[in-house]
Please model this.
Amino acid sequence: MVAASSPERVAVIGAGMAGLATAWFLQERGVSVTVLDRDGVAAGSSWGNAGWLTPGLATPLPEPAVLRYGARALLSPSSPVYVPPSADPRLARFLAGFVRHSTAARWRTAMSALVPINERALAAFDALADGGMAGRTVEAKSFLAAYRTERERTVLLDEIRHIDAAGHHIEFDTLTGAEAREVEPSLSDAVGSAIRLHGQRFIDPGTYVHQLADSVRGRGGEIRDDVAVAEVRDRAGAVEIVSGDGAVERFDTVVLATGARLGGLARQFGVRTLVQAGRGYSFSVPIDHVPAGPVYFPSQRVACTPIGDRLRIAGMMEFRAPDAPLDPRRIRAIAEAARPLLRDADLDARADEWVGSRPCTPDGLPLIGATRSPRVFVAGGHGMWGITLGPVTGELLAETITTGRRPAELAPFDPLR
Model:
């Protein structure tokens, strides 16, 4: 039953995980939805990322370790966090805010804000499955964070303790290198210690998001590709969407889920938080033994996920314009970082080389909820965790839109903060 104040027709701008999940959960509440995207389904950061569903590790991106890199490391093309030299004042403002939030105290505050939504993340995927969506998550038979030494491992162990202190408990074991290779033979002899995480899942994100789009269509929703939205106008009792060719269409409500481009449409509605593209790279390679689950090399910031009969290898945080071309130096840097740690992976037989723009905020928290207009809402700014938190974002935002009540989990993510 749709509440009396609930909108009947909603447009969602953005066909990534967060936008499509919002559309799906709005349909659950009886709302007619139209999804618009400048390119197409999963064309942004939803396609080539690692596909991990690890809410226990969904932590704020600004962290004290960022301060330890130093300026020289951040300017190196081989650094896992890379800032190309730029005179862009907007990027400078973002980086200043990012550094300001990279303290232990602010990390703990942001982590406490994320815990309530993290704890609902996997249940939202289950709700999609229970509602008839064809995509399924995969239980990780193993999920290993691998290191060269025990000393390197202490960083993640400390982080797990801080996550636990914030209220989210993670089950894990510590392993020697030999024990890790027994679990996962694809690890090389260079791995000297590991942490095995329990209760984790993963997906092939591109396939899953397309299946979610199919479900939205199958329930009567419309998805339009190649629609460049030039303007969103708040009018009495309605919202007008103006496309690049000048066509105007009216809806009761609009959800802005445009990823790294969120600020372009949201700013006029009071959203002042900068959303910066944090570009990630990935590629796939053949490997003799495809891992049974994700493998993470935290010291190198390289994530590996089995996708079919190949291994997807992802990494890098490159603060750059979202439309900048793929830089092959980043791909090579990721491959060389992973090479000593993987056994029998042909890192020179790369395919599916990809770059996508994660929408990052200076404080590491997403933007979810109402704007200054009661008819315009925002869903974005999830940083590295848009896949993990996309469905629960859609579920909670659909509740907000149709009832007028904001769930407590969304309070820290106010787009007007």
